[in-house]
Design a protein that fits this description.
Blueprint: E1 6-11, H1 15-28, E2 32-36, E3 49-53, H2 60-73, E4 78-83, H3 86-94, E5 103-104, H4 110-117, H5 119-129, E6 136-139, E7 155-159, H6 162-165, E8 177-179, H7 182-194, E9 201-205, E10 214-221, E11 227-238, E12 248-254, H8 257-269, E13 274-283, E14 288-295, H9 303-307, H10 312-320, E15 329-330, E16 336-338, H11 342-348, H12 354-362, E17 366-367, H13 378-398
Parallel strand pairs: 1-2, 1-4, 2-3, 4-5, 11-15, 16-17
Antiparallel strand pairs: 6-9, 7-8, 7-9, 10-11, 10-13, 11-12, 12-16, 13-14
Length: 403
């Protein structure tokens, strides 16, 4: 391990984890410790990650055990623990106050976290702070089919609480549903509740428009609750597979100061600290940005920020380890982030944006977070390249090609 006074510990094994590990390595030449459930994924075999397999990795007691073990392994260093999925977040937050003294868990209280990640409660806060969101109906199990929706289809349907939703798998289960008729809504409700899921279900007015109407806003709030970084990404392409729907695949950074200011005021008023991430869609019907949800962490696509020149690991370390004051940065420069090969982009991204994509690539203002030249392990590189090729087939199976 390096001579830095801290050790990053990441929970998870996906692109989110690899992207943050790359950010730590680029900024400080440091190797990250990551705990994942399986010997697979972009972190497995990486030269920049000490990847450790841990079953039941997201359970609160296991998180405490693993983090405490690292704290004992490096007693003279600060251990920064970051979760890279909602289940890890609640497990980390549940242990605040129980970690060894050299552990830093940069998260809000479990009470505030559970309020924010529960979509029905989050929309109540949006109404309070004047943050636009899609027209919403909150369904409770006892309503059955005896309710009237205040808007016509198509409809977007999703669980209000995703963590317990995935604890009750069933055939055809989706991350979110796009439905066209009331009959389809009733059928989806019945299937979800029959699985054992008992919380509320969100039914929303579907905002028209392809993936290029999506936006993502990533932020860092310091220990005093002041927002220090805001970076808006214009999403050009998302995954459309059953379990991966909504995962970002192509992003260009843009500047939307009015939206960012509204979100900044919200975050600072509720006393938020650490990373946050908002999913947003532009509604062409009324010209408004509508917020879908907040993630109390850096998102899966977090490297779009680091790649644009604003290293997320550095913002975290400068605040938590070196206690350096930072002025608010709202990013303005354009930069391309892609986690898929160009063939996927040319075949599936809205053609109106292809000239911009090609211009940024020609200017060298682009990055694929998985293709890191300092990560030299041959088997790892081959695994990543094989994954890139699989994206081509995956998108062809779930999306039509551009005409």
């Amino acid at each position: 391990m390096s001579d830095m006074p801290f050790v990053p510990v990441l929970l998870g094994a996906d692109i989110n984890v690899y992207s943050m590990a790359r950010a730590f390595h680029e900024a400080y030449g440091i190797k990250t410790i990551a705990f994942g459930r399986y010997p697979s994924g972009p972190c497995y075999g990486s030269d920049i990650i000490d990847y450790r397999i841990s079953e039941n990795n997201s359970q609160a007691e296991m998180v405490l055990k693993n983090v405490s073990a690292v704290a004992s392994e490096f007693p003279h260093k600060r251990v920064i623990v970051l979760g890279c999925g909602d289940d890890y977040l609640t497990a980390i937050a549940a242990n605040i106050g129980r970690y060894p003294e050299n552990v830093i868990a940069p998260y809000i209280s479990l009470e505030l976290m559970t309020t924010l990640i529960h979509k029905a409660r989050f929309y109540e806060l949006c109404d309070k702070y004047g943050i636009d969101h899609p027209a919403t109906f909150v369904h409770r199990r006892e309503l059955g089919h005896d309710f009237t929706l205040p808007f016509a289809g198509p409809f977007a349907l999703k669980p209000a609480e995703s963590y317990t939703y995935w604890d009750h798998p069933f055939p055809g289960q989706k991350k979110a549903y796009i439905l066209h008729t009331r009959e389809e809504v009733d059928k989806a409700l019945d299937e979800i509740y029959a699985s054992g899921y008992a919380d509320e279900i969100i039914i929303q007015d579907y905002i028209p428009g392809d993936d290029s109407f999506m936006r993502v806003v990533t932020n860092y709030s310091d220990q005093d609750g002041k927002v220090r970084l805001m970076c808006l990404g214009h999403v050009l392409l998302e995954e459309h597979s059953r379990l991966g729907i909504g995962n970002h695949s192509v992003i260009i950074t843009e500047h939307e100061p009015e939206l960012c200011e509204k979100l900044r005021l919200f975050l600072e008023d509720i006393g938020y600290t650490g990373f946050s991430n908002f999913d947003v869609k532009f509604d062409q019907r009324d010209g408004k940005f509508k917020v879908f949800e907040i993630n109390c962490r850096q998102g899966r696509s977090n490297y779009y920020v680091t790649g644009a020149g604003y290293n997320l690991a550095k913002f975290l370390v400068e605040d938590l380890i070196y206690h350096k004051p930072q002025e608010l940065i709202v990013t303005k420069n354009q930069h391309l982030w892609q986690v898929v090969p160009m063939k996927v982009i040319t075949e599936h991204v809205n053609p109106r944006y292809l000239p911009q994509v090609k211009a940024l690539r020609k200017a060298g203002a682009w990055v694929n977070p998985l293709l890191y030249k300092e990560d030299k392990n041959l088997m790892h590189r081959l695994h990543i390249l094989w994954g890139q090729l699989r994206f081509i087939k995956g998108f062809r199976l779930t999306m039509p090609k551009n005409q």
